[in-house]
Amino acid sequence: MSPPDDVPGSGTTPRVGLRAATTLNMLSMIGAGPFLTIPLIVGSMHGPPSLLAWIAGALVALADGVVWAELGAALPRSGGGYRYLLEAYGSRGPGRLMSFLFLWQTVIAFPLTMASGAVGFAHYLQYLVPSLGPWQMKGLAAFVCLLSAALVYRRIDRVGRWGTAFGALVFVAIGWVILEGVLHGRLEAVRVPEGAWQLSSGSFWAGFGAATLYSVYDYLGYNNICSYAGEVQRPAATIPRSIVLSVLLVAALYLAMNVSILSAMPWQEAASSQYVVSEFIARLRPGAAATIMTWLILLTIFAGLFAGMCATSRIPYAAAADGHFFPAFARLHPSGRFPSFSVAFAGVASAVACLLELDTLIAALVSIYVVIGALPIIGAVTALRRRPDIVRPFSMWWYPLPGLAAAAGWIAILVTSGVWYIAAGFGLLAIGVASYLWRARRAGEWPFAEIRGAA
What we know:
The protein is mainly α. It has helices at 18-30, 33-45, 50-74, 81-89, 94-128, 134-152, 156-184, 202-219, 235-264, 267-272, 276-284, 289-312, 314-321, 340-353, 358-385, 401-417, 419-443, 448-454.
């Protein structure tokens, strides 16, 4: 069953243009990530070589981004990966299983993503309020998730205006860091120390792998536009452009910000800092400057939560509207015509996930996404190209090299995450398959529909 004509994506709701779509993508990508992970990445690579991890993360994101760009331009309807897997692998065949698993990982991994940003928010607020205890910080993080869901609980055009306003604050915060590096930094401090490139050393590759896992986490969000593609103006052009632009722009901002910090702050201090950006500003601008920067960081983190909540809440809605997920997620607000239940669920589930620690949240969500989400999506491009009825307004450059590069990068990152997180990813995959088979048997769907037909 297809959604009725008056639901998001049908053409009668307000639309998001290239500027708003790119801004929302960038907000989702930046969020809390760099403010939390810069010390982890610098420490893993022992100083300036950490820039290599940011470049590697950008390459994985760009390669994977053009995969999503081709799929999004060919199937410009809300639902993102769920929609692509369903169509690519067959809506009456294995596509049912693949799309269900994508929903499965979305419902599990998305709250982890939002919670990691909210925990980062509480972490930086502790710089301003040192007396905050562990449980107070968890409660604050949960409240931030609920507040961001409340702001997303409105029409998509109004969400786009909020995104533009938040985007200005994000660029002020990062621009300030870059400017301080230009004014006070020394480029010789960013030089790679002699002997740092010991490629035959196992410790180098272990550090590089760990640093790249964190940097890729910081880039996640470039594909968020695909989740609400049905609400985008000229999606065949806007989706590919917004994905590529957001990756390139965020990569440039990340590299410039890291060069600025490393040029004006000893890398050993950066690696051990709990509030690296705030302490970077305090080092250069004594007084109230660090407090102002911390407030900008808090707004930046909240902006990322806002953008991510907006995009991902559309995925279970699209599946439920098709009759492939729990019916409650298909509910639309009577006047705003946005997925009301899905937004509310995203806020509550994210708030609950705030009980976990930050490093657990990051490693778990990346592992789950790679196993159940990223690798099947890469295969969907090849499967969809075999269908002559699908028009592809955008084709990835040098096919299939970007897909192969993305797959290699994701597998390397998965291996780096650790045995327990890999086991958790495959364990959730097995539970997801079992859940689908139980549901499919009750509903008479693939593969049980074929068995019944044969009988």
